[in-house]
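TICKET: design request
STATUS: open
ATTACHED STRUCTURE:
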Protein backbone atom coordinates (compact mmCIF):
# COMPACT_ATOMS: atom_id res chain seq x y z
CA UNK A 1 0.00 0.00 0.00
CA UNK A 2 1.38 3.40 -0.88
CA UNK A 3 1.75 5.96 1.90
CA UNK A 4 -0.94 8.05 0.24
CA UNK A 5 -3.39 5.15 0.20
CA UNK A 6 -2.55 4.33 3.78
CA UNK A 7 -3.18 7.91 4.81
CA UNK A 8 -6.50 7.82 2.95
CA UNK A 9 -7.55 4.72 4.83
CA UNK A 10 -6.73 6.31 8.14
CA UNK A 11 -8.77 9.41 7.42
CA UNK A 12 -12.27 9.12 8.87
CA UNK A 13 -14.77 8.36 6.14
CA UNK A 14 -18.03 10.26 6.24
CA UNK A 15 -20.89 8.41 4.60
CA UNK A 16 -22.44 10.60 1.89
CA UNK A 17 -26.06 11.66 1.85
CA UNK A 18 -27.75 8.68 0.16
CA UNK A 19 -30.27 10.97 -1.53
CA UNK A 20 -27.61 13.16 -3.12
CA UNK A 21 -27.30 12.22 -6.80
CA UNK A 22 -24.62 14.79 -7.68
CA UNK A 23 -22.36 13.16 -10.27
CA UNK A 24 -24.41 9.95 -10.17
CA UNK A 25 -25.18 7.42 -11.43
CA UNK A 26 -21.73 6.24 -12.40
CA UNK A 27 -21.16 4.08 -15.49
CA UNK A 28 -24.37 5.43 -17.10
CA UNK A 29 -22.64 5.18 -20.47
CA UNK A 30 -22.29 1.44 -19.94
CA UNK A 31 -25.86 0.74 -18.81
CA UNK A 32 -27.11 -1.72 -21.44
CA UNK A 33 -30.66 -0.45 -20.91
CA UNK A 34 -29.79 3.08 -21.98
CA UNK A 35 -27.91 2.74 -25.27
CA UNK A 36 -28.96 3.58 -28.81
CA UNK A 37 -28.13 1.85 -32.08
CA UNK A 38 -25.60 3.20 -34.58
CA UNK A 39 -23.07 4.14 -31.92
CA UNK A 40 -19.37 4.67 -32.37
CA UNK A 41 -17.32 3.40 -33.99
CA UNK A 42 -19.19 3.31 -37.26
CA UNK A 43 -18.39 0.20 -39.39
CA UNK A 44 -15.83 0.72 -42.12
CA UNK A 45 -18.21 -0.49 -44.81
CA UNK A 46 -21.84 0.58 -44.95
CA UNK A 47 -24.42 -0.27 -47.61
CA UNK A 48 -25.02 2.54 -50.05
CA UNK A 49 -28.41 4.16 -49.34
CA UNK A 50 -28.97 4.84 -53.05
CA UNK A 51 -28.64 1.14 -53.77
CA UNK A 52 -31.30 -0.03 -51.32
CA UNK A 53 -33.64 -2.32 -53.26
CA UNK A 54 -35.79 -3.49 -50.35
CA UNK A 55 -36.73 -0.46 -48.26
CA UNK A 56 -36.40 -0.63 -44.48
CA UNK A 57 -36.78 1.97 -41.78
CA UNK A 58 -33.81 4.31 -41.68
CA UNK A 59 -33.40 5.48 -38.14
CA UNK A 60 -31.80 5.12 -34.75
CA UNK A 61 -33.40 2.84 -32.21
CA UNK A 62 -33.03 1.89 -28.55
CA UNK A 63 -30.31 -0.75 -28.48
CA UNK A 64 -31.34 -4.23 -27.37
CA UNK A 65 -28.85 -6.29 -25.46
CA UNK A 66 -29.49 -9.31 -23.35
CA UNK A 67 -27.55 -11.92 -21.44
CA UNK A 68 -26.81 -15.10 -23.35
CA UNK A 69 -29.00 -17.31 -21.14
CA UNK A 70 -32.01 -15.11 -21.78
CA UNK A 71 -31.40 -14.79 -25.49
CA UNK A 72 -31.19 -18.57 -25.88
CA UNK A 73 -33.70 -19.57 -23.22
CA UNK A 74 -36.10 -21.20 -25.66
CA UNK A 75 -33.52 -22.94 -27.85
CA UNK A 76 -32.65 -26.61 -27.85
CA UNK A 77 -29.36 -27.53 -26.11
CA UNK A 78 -27.97 -28.67 -29.47
CA UNK A 79 -28.18 -25.16 -30.86
CA UNK A 80 -27.14 -23.43 -27.64
CA UNK A 81 -24.02 -25.57 -27.23
CA UNK A 82 -22.97 -24.93 -30.81
CA UNK A 83 -23.31 -21.18 -30.34
CA UNK A 84 -21.61 -21.24 -26.95
CA UNK A 85 -18.58 -22.94 -28.50
CA UNK A 86 -18.08 -20.17 -31.09
CA UNK A 87 -20.40 -17.24 -30.32
CA UNK A 88 -18.75 -14.86 -32.77
CA UNK A 89 -19.64 -17.10 -35.69
CA UNK A 90 -23.33 -16.47 -35.14
CA UNK A 91 -25.72 -13.56 -34.86
CA UNK A 92 -29.16 -13.70 -33.27
CA UNK A 93 -31.94 -12.31 -35.45
CA UNK A 94 -34.73 -11.63 -33.00
CA UNK A 95 -38.11 -11.14 -34.67
CA UNK A 96 -39.96 -8.15 -33.21
CA UNK A 97 -42.89 -9.02 -30.97
CA UNK A 98 -43.18 -12.71 -31.43
CA UNK A 99 -43.57 -15.96 -29.64
CA UNK A 100 -43.19 -19.40 -31.03
CA UNK A 101 -46.45 -19.21 -32.92
CA UNK A 102 -44.79 -16.65 -35.20
CA UNK A 103 -42.80 -19.49 -36.76
CA UNK A 104 -45.97 -21.50 -37.29
CA UNK A 105 -47.50 -18.62 -39.18
CA UNK A 106 -44.24 -17.83 -40.99
CA UNK A 107 -42.51 -21.21 -41.42
CA UNK A 108 -40.09 -19.61 -43.88
CA UNK A 109 -39.26 -16.58 -41.74
CA UNK A 110 -35.59 -17.52 -42.09
CA UNK A 111 -35.77 -17.46 -45.89
CA UNK A 112 -37.56 -14.10 -45.81
CA UNK A 113 -34.89 -12.62 -43.55
CA UNK A 114 -32.14 -14.10 -45.73
CA UNK A 115 -33.61 -12.66 -48.92
CA UNK A 116 -33.80 -9.25 -47.26
CA UNK A 117 -30.21 -9.38 -45.98
CA UNK A 118 -28.99 -10.50 -49.39
CA UNK A 119 -30.49 -7.33 -50.83
CA UNK A 120 -27.80 -5.28 -49.02
CA UNK A 121 -25.04 -3.73 -51.03
CA UNK A 122 -22.51 -5.75 -48.98
CA UNK A 123 -20.72 -9.09 -49.12
CA UNK A 124 -23.55 -11.45 -48.17
CA UNK A 125 -22.21 -14.60 -49.81
CA UNK A 126 -22.52 -17.83 -47.89
CA UNK A 127 -24.94 -16.73 -45.20
CA UNK A 128 -27.35 -19.18 -43.65
CA UNK A 129 -30.22 -18.51 -41.27
CA UNK A 130 -31.59 -21.29 -39.07
CA UNK A 131 -34.91 -21.29 -37.29
CA UNK A 132 -34.74 -21.84 -33.53
CA UNK A 133 -35.41 -25.38 -32.40
CA UNK A 134 -37.69 -25.43 -29.38
CA UNK A 135 -36.17 -26.63 -26.14
CA UNK A 136 -39.59 -27.93 -25.08
CA UNK A 137 -41.30 -28.97 -28.32
CA UNK A 138 -44.51 -30.02 -26.56
CA UNK A 139 -45.23 -26.61 -25.11
CA UNK A 140 -48.15 -24.73 -26.57
CA UNK A 141 -46.95 -22.12 -29.07
CA UNK A 142 -47.78 -18.61 -27.94
CA UNK A 143 -48.19 -15.34 -29.74
CA UNK A 144 -45.87 -13.53 -27.39
CA UNK A 145 -43.09 -15.23 -25.59
CA UNK A 146 -39.53 -14.88 -24.41
CA UNK A 147 -36.90 -14.36 -27.08
CA UNK A 148 -37.07 -16.72 -30.07
CA UNK A 149 -34.20 -15.58 -32.28
CA UNK A 150 -33.19 -17.10 -35.58
CA UNK A 151 -29.50 -17.92 -35.97
CA UNK A 152 -27.44 -16.32 -38.73
CA UNK A 153 -24.10 -17.87 -39.65
CA UNK A 154 -21.54 -17.32 -42.39
CA UNK A 155 -21.63 -13.52 -42.24
CA UNK A 156 -18.62 -11.72 -43.73
CA UNK A 157 -16.90 -9.31 -41.31
CA UNK A 158 -18.45 -6.29 -43.09
CA UNK A 159 -21.94 -7.78 -42.94
CA UNK A 160 -21.54 -8.74 -39.30
CA UNK A 161 -20.31 -5.29 -38.36
CA UNK A 162 -23.16 -3.60 -40.16
CA UNK A 163 -25.90 -5.89 -38.84
CA UNK A 164 -24.82 -5.49 -35.22
CA UNK A 165 -24.28 -1.74 -35.52
CA UNK A 166 -27.61 -1.02 -37.20
CA UNK A 167 -29.44 -3.75 -35.26
CA UNK A 168 -33.10 -3.05 -36.01
CA UNK A 169 -34.44 -3.87 -39.46
CA UNK A 170 -38.08 -2.99 -40.02
CA UNK A 171 -39.10 -4.07 -43.50
CA UNK A 172 -42.77 -4.95 -43.26
CA UNK A 173 -45.36 -6.50 -40.95
CA UNK A 174 -43.71 -9.93 -41.26
CA UNK A 175 -40.05 -9.08 -41.62
CA UNK A 176 -38.90 -7.05 -38.61
CA UNK A 177 -35.96 -8.23 -36.58
CA UNK A 178 -33.15 -7.10 -34.32
CA UNK A 179 -29.59 -8.35 -34.90
CA UNK A 180 -27.99 -9.13 -31.54
CA UNK A 181 -24.57 -10.57 -30.77
CA UNK A 182 -24.45 -13.81 -28.84
CA UNK A 183 -22.30 -12.29 -26.12
CA UNK A 184 -21.44 -14.67 -23.30
CA UNK A 185 -20.38 -11.68 -21.19
CA UNK A 186 -23.49 -9.55 -21.70
CA UNK A 187 -24.76 -8.35 -18.35
CA UNK A 188 -28.19 -7.71 -17.00
CA UNK A 189 -28.33 -4.49 -15.01
CA UNK A 190 -31.93 -4.84 -13.84
CA UNK A 191 -31.95 -5.41 -10.10
CA UNK A 192 -35.59 -5.21 -9.08
CA UNK A 193 -38.99 -3.80 -9.90
CA UNK A 194 -40.64 -1.67 -7.24
CA UNK A 195 -44.34 -1.02 -6.92
CA UNK A 196 -46.57 0.47 -4.24
CA UNK A 197 -47.79 3.86 -3.09
CA UNK A 198 -44.33 5.40 -2.83
CA UNK A 199 -43.85 5.26 -6.62
CA UNK A 200 -44.20 8.76 -8.10
CA UNK A 201 -42.73 10.36 -11.22
CA UNK A 202 -41.14 13.47 -9.73
CA UNK A 203 -37.39 13.70 -9.15
CA UNK A 204 -37.82 14.32 -5.42
CA UNK A 205 -39.79 11.08 -4.90
CA UNK A 206 -37.31 9.13 -6.99
CA UNK A 207 -34.37 10.51 -5.02
CA UNK A 208 -36.10 9.71 -1.73
CA UNK A 209 -36.87 6.15 -2.76
CA UNK A 210 -33.39 5.49 -4.11
CA UNK A 211 -31.88 7.18 -1.07
CA UNK A 212 -33.87 4.95 1.24
CA UNK A 213 -32.70 1.84 -0.63
CA UNK A 214 -29.06 2.89 -0.38
CA UNK A 215 -29.39 3.93 3.26
CA UNK A 216 -30.82 0.56 4.21
CA UNK A 217 -28.22 -1.38 2.21
CA UNK A 218 -25.32 0.62 3.63
CA UNK A 219 -26.54 -0.20 7.14
CA UNK A 220 -27.05 -3.91 6.52
CA UNK A 221 -24.11 -5.88 7.90
CA UNK A 222 -24.66 -8.90 5.67
CA UNK A 223 -24.74 -6.76 2.54
CA UNK A 224 -21.74 -4.67 3.59
CA UNK A 225 -19.70 -7.77 4.40
CA UNK A 226 -20.65 -9.36 1.11
CA UNK A 227 -19.66 -6.30 -0.97
CA UNK A 228 -16.51 -5.87 1.08
CA UNK A 229 -15.43 -9.45 0.38
CA UNK A 230 -16.22 -9.22 -3.36
CA UNK A 231 -14.32 -5.95 -3.72
CA UNK A 232 -11.38 -7.27 -1.69
CA UNK A 233 -11.16 -10.30 -3.93
CA UNK A 234 -11.28 -8.08 -7.00
CA UNK A 235 -8.48 -5.93 -5.59
CA UNK A 236 -10.64 -2.82 -5.28
CA UNK A 237 -9.42 -0.64 -2.47
CA UNK A 238 -11.22 1.20 0.28
CA UNK A 239 -12.80 0.47 3.63
CA UNK A 240 -15.97 -1.59 3.92
CA UNK A 241 -17.99 1.64 4.09
CA UNK A 242 -16.31 3.13 1.04
CA UNK A 243 -16.77 -0.08 -0.89
CA UNK A 244 -20.49 -0.39 -0.18
CA UNK A 245 -21.04 3.23 -1.20
CA UNK A 246 -19.03 2.65 -4.36
CA UNK A 247 -21.00 -0.50 -5.20
CA UNK A 248 -24.27 1.42 -5.21
CA UNK A 249 -23.11 4.54 -7.08
CA UNK A 250 -24.35 3.18 -10.40
CA UNK A 251 -27.85 2.63 -9.01
CA UNK A 252 -30.54 4.33 -11.03
CA UNK A 253 -34.27 4.33 -10.43
CA UNK A 254 -36.40 4.68 -13.55
CA UNK A 255 -40.07 5.62 -13.29
CA UNK A 256 -42.31 3.57 -15.59
CA UNK A 257 -45.85 4.74 -16.08
CA UNK A 258 -48.19 1.79 -16.42
CA UNK A 259 -51.23 0.03 -15.05
CA UNK A 260 -51.80 -3.29 -13.39
CA UNK A 261 -53.81 -6.28 -14.62
CA UNK A 262 -57.01 -4.79 -13.17
CA UNK A 263 -56.57 -1.65 -15.19
CA UNK A 264 -55.67 0.57 -12.23
CA UNK A 265 -52.94 3.15 -12.66
CA UNK A 266 -50.00 1.43 -11.00
CA UNK A 267 -46.61 2.83 -12.00
CA UNK A 268 -43.40 1.08 -11.04
CA UNK A 269 -39.76 1.92 -10.54
CA UNK A 270 -37.09 -0.19 -12.17
CA UNK A 271 -33.83 -0.29 -10.23
CA UNK A 272 -30.75 -0.84 -12.37
CA UNK A 273 -27.11 -0.92 -11.41
CA UNK A 274 -23.79 -2.22 -12.64
CA UNK A 275 -23.17 -5.78 -11.43
CA UNK A 276 -20.21 -5.96 -9.07
CA UNK A 277 -19.08 -9.34 -10.34
CA UNK A 278 -19.16 -11.35 -13.55
CA UNK A 279 -19.30 -14.52 -11.49
CA UNK A 280 -22.87 -15.86 -11.78
CA UNK A 281 -23.12 -17.17 -8.22
CA UNK A 282 -21.83 -13.87 -6.83
CA UNK A 283 -24.28 -11.97 -8.99
CA UNK A 284 -27.16 -14.12 -7.76
CA UNK A 285 -26.16 -13.41 -4.19
CA UNK A 286 -25.90 -9.67 -4.94
CA UNK A 287 -29.43 -9.63 -6.33
CA UNK A 288 -30.96 -11.74 -3.61
CA UNK A 289 -29.41 -9.64 -0.84
CA UNK A 290 -30.77 -6.41 -2.34
CA UNK A 291 -34.19 -7.80 -3.14
CA UNK A 292 -34.60 -9.75 0.03
CA UNK A 293 -33.16 -7.24 2.48
CA UNK A 294 -34.33 -8.11 5.97
CA UNK A 295 -37.00 -5.64 7.02
CA UNK A 296 -37.57 -4.40 3.49
CA UNK A 297 -37.64 -0.78 2.38
CA UNK A 298 -39.95 1.98 3.60
CA UNK A 299 -40.43 5.48 2.17
CA UNK A 300 -42.74 7.94 3.94
CA UNK A 301 -44.48 5.03 5.72
CA UNK A 302 -45.13 3.29 2.40
CA UNK A 303 -43.49 -0.03 1.71
CA UNK A 304 -41.49 -0.38 -1.48
CA UNK A 305 -43.03 -3.55 -2.86
CA UNK A 306 -40.28 -5.61 -4.46
CA UNK A 307 -40.73 -7.80 -7.53
CA UNK A 308 -44.45 -8.36 -7.24
CA UNK A 309 -44.72 -7.03 -10.74
CA UNK A 310 -42.36 -7.09 -13.70
CA UNK A 311 -41.77 -5.02 -16.77
CA UNK A 312 -41.13 -7.01 -19.91
CA UNK A 313 -42.06 -5.52 -23.27
CA UNK A 314 -43.57 -8.27 -25.42
CA UNK A 315 -42.36 -6.47 -28.56
CA UNK A 316 -38.66 -5.78 -28.06
CA UNK A 317 -38.19 -7.76 -24.79
CA UNK A 318 -36.99 -4.67 -22.92
CA UNK A 319 -37.41 -4.59 -19.17
CA UNK A 320 -37.47 -0.80 -19.14
CA UNK A 321 -40.87 -0.11 -20.66
CA UNK A 322 -44.23 -1.85 -20.95
CA UNK A 323 -45.58 -3.10 -24.29
CA UNK A 324 -47.85 -0.06 -24.69
CA UNK A 325 -44.84 2.20 -24.26
CA UNK A 326 -42.63 0.40 -26.78
CA UNK A 327 -40.71 3.17 -28.55
CA UNK A 328 -39.99 1.31 -31.79
CA UNK A 329 -43.42 1.77 -33.31
CA UNK A 330 -43.15 5.52 -32.89
CA UNK A 331 -39.89 5.82 -34.85
CA UNK A 332 -40.34 8.01 -37.89
CA UNK A 333 -41.08 5.92 -40.97
CA UNK A 334 -41.58 2.65 -39.05
CA UNK A 335 -42.33 -0.02 -41.64
CA UNK A 336 -42.21 -2.99 -39.31
CA UNK A 337 -44.55 -5.07 -37.21
CA UNK A 338 -47.38 -2.95 -35.80
CA UNK A 339 -48.72 -3.38 -32.31
CA UNK A 340 -52.01 -5.15 -31.78
CA UNK A 341 -55.11 -3.13 -31.56
CA UNK A 342 -56.66 -3.17 -28.11
CA UNK A 343 -59.19 -5.91 -28.79
CA UNK A 344 -56.67 -8.29 -30.31
CA UNK A 345 -54.34 -7.66 -27.43
CA UNK A 346 -57.02 -8.33 -24.82
CA UNK A 347 -58.09 -11.51 -26.62
CA UNK A 348 -54.56 -12.79 -26.66
CA UNK A 349 -53.76 -12.02 -23.06
CA UNK A 350 -57.15 -13.37 -21.97
CA UNK A 351 -56.48 -16.68 -23.73
CA UNK A 352 -53.05 -16.93 -22.25
CA UNK A 353 -54.41 -16.13 -18.84
CA UNK A 354 -56.86 -19.00 -19.17
CA UNK A 355 -54.05 -21.29 -20.26
CA UNK A 356 -51.62 -20.47 -17.56
CA UNK A 357 -53.41 -19.24 -14.49
CA UNK A 358 -52.03 -16.02 -13.14
CA UNK A 359 -49.57 -15.37 -15.92
CA UNK A 360 -50.88 -13.03 -18.52
CA UNK A 361 -47.81 -12.15 -20.44
CA UNK A 362 -45.34 -13.72 -22.73
CA UNK A 363 -41.71 -13.74 -21.87
CA UNK A 364 -39.39 -15.30 -19.44
CA UNK A 365 -40.27 -15.56 -15.87
CA UNK A 366 -37.65 -13.93 -13.76
CA UNK A 367 -38.66 -15.09 -10.42
CA UNK A 368 -40.12 -18.53 -10.16
CA UNK A 369 -38.21 -21.36 -8.69
CA UNK A 370 -38.62 -24.95 -9.72
CA UNK A 371 -39.37 -24.11 -13.33
CA UNK A 372 -37.56 -25.39 -16.33
CA UNK A 373 -35.00 -23.70 -18.48
CA UNK A 374 -37.75 -22.62 -20.83
CA UNK A 375 -38.71 -19.96 -18.33
CA UNK A 376 -35.27 -18.47 -18.17
CA UNK A 377 -34.57 -19.83 -14.75
CA UNK A 378 -31.11 -21.14 -15.33
CA UNK A 379 -28.90 -21.18 -12.32
CA UNK A 380 -26.33 -18.89 -13.88
CA UNK A 381 -27.12 -15.67 -12.11
CA UNK A 382 -28.01 -13.74 -15.22
CA UNK A 383 -31.52 -15.08 -15.35
CA UNK A 384 -31.91 -13.32 -12.02
CA UNK A 385 -32.92 -14.79 -8.74
CA UNK A 386 -35.85 -14.22 -6.48
CA UNK A 387 -36.56 -14.55 -2.85
CA UNK A 388 -38.52 -17.71 -3.43
CA UNK A 389 -42.23 -18.12 -3.68
CA UNK A 390 -44.36 -17.32 -6.65
CA UNK A 391 -45.24 -13.84 -7.72
CA UNK A 392 -47.84 -12.56 -10.04
CA UNK A 393 -46.45 -11.14 -13.18
CA UNK A 394 -48.25 -8.83 -15.49
CA UNK A 395 -47.76 -7.76 -19.00
CA UNK A 396 -47.58 -4.04 -19.09
ZN1 LIG B 1 -40.43 -2.55 -26.43
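STATUS: resolved
RESOLUTION: sequence designed for all positions
ATTACHED SEQUENCE:
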Amino acid sequence: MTPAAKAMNLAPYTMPDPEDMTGLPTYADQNPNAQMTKGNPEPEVLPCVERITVPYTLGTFPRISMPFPRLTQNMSPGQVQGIEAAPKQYIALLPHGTGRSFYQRRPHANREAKAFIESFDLDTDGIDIALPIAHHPGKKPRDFDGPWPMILSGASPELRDFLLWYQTFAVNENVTFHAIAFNLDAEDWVIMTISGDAVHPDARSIAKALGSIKRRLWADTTFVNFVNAVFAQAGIGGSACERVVEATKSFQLTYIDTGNAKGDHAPVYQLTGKPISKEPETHRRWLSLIRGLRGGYVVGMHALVIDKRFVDCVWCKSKMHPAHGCPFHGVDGWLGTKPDNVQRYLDRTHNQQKDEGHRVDGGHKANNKGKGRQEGNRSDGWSTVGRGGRHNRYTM
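CLOSING REMARK: The CA atoms of residues 363 and 388 lie 19 Å apart. The chain is about 30% helix and 10% strand.
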